[in-house]
Design a protein that fits this description.
The chain is α/β, with parallel strands linked by helices and 200 residues long. The strands form 2 sheets. Strands 2, 3, 4, 5, 6, 7 and 8 form a 7-stranded mixed beta sheet that branches. It is globular and about 50 Å long.
């Protein structure tokens, strides 16, 4: 079994049975594995795929959230007490030895998960002519070491709404059995109740 290619994923997403969120055999988390060396190529292909799926033959509009960019926006909207109106700005200007620990706490917080839920809802609730059966999540490699893929999927579970959409998580790495390897080097735990997008 080998990971899907982007064209194969695009074909799967146009399948009407797969589009229906009620047709979930197990979970609504799907993981698309790719070579970490192709990170920026994959990012471009994600946006090209989005444009392709919006055409009249499909009318599918897929929110694509860069998790790292969203994390920066989340921090930028949070005040750092009385010192700064932006947590992000304060940390960039005043780096401390606690930097990594603080960002790890923030990345795994209920507040950040709630923010991601809000962003997803904003996108799929748009009143337009498109259907919104999927959500793309990418940039998980940029979140290392503050948030790993399995941590994100686990912590987002309480905010997840499988009756409305399927989440496609783009993962820069590989899998051996049930063991994921971020960047093909860093051992990760099994993706929390997720389905690998593979060629059978």
């Amino acid at each position: 079994m080998t990971p899907m290619t982007i064209p194969q994923l695009c074909e799967k997403l146009t399948s009407e049975p797969f589009q229906n969120p009620r047709n979930i055999v197990y979970y609504n988390y799907y993981i698309f594995l790719y070579d970490p060396a192709k990170e920026y190529e994959i990012r471009q292909q994600i946006h090209d795929m989005k444009d392709s799926l919006k055409r009249p033959a499909n009318f599918i509009d897929i929110p694509a959230l860069n998790l790292f960019d969203e994390f920066c926006r989340f921090l930028d909207k949070q005040p750092f007490g009385k010192f700064d109106s932006s947590y992000l700005h304060y940390m960039l200007e005043n780096e401390t030895p606690e930097y990594s620990r603080i960002l790890t706490i923030k990345a795994g917080s209920k507040e950040f998960m709630s923010y991601i839920q809000q962003r997803i809802n904003e996108e799929i609730d748009k009143a337009d002519e498109y259907i919104h059966p999927y959500v793309f999540i990418y940039g998980i490699g940029s979140m290392y070491p503050y948030l790993r893929a399995n941590d994100f999927l686990t912590k987002y579970e309480g905010y997840n709404d499988p009756s409305r959409y399927k989440i496609i998580l783009f993962y820069p790495g590989s899998i051996d059995g049930n063991s994921y390897s971020l960047f093909n080097r860093l051992h990760d735990q099994h993706g929390y109740r997720s389905i690998n997008l593979i060629n059978k």
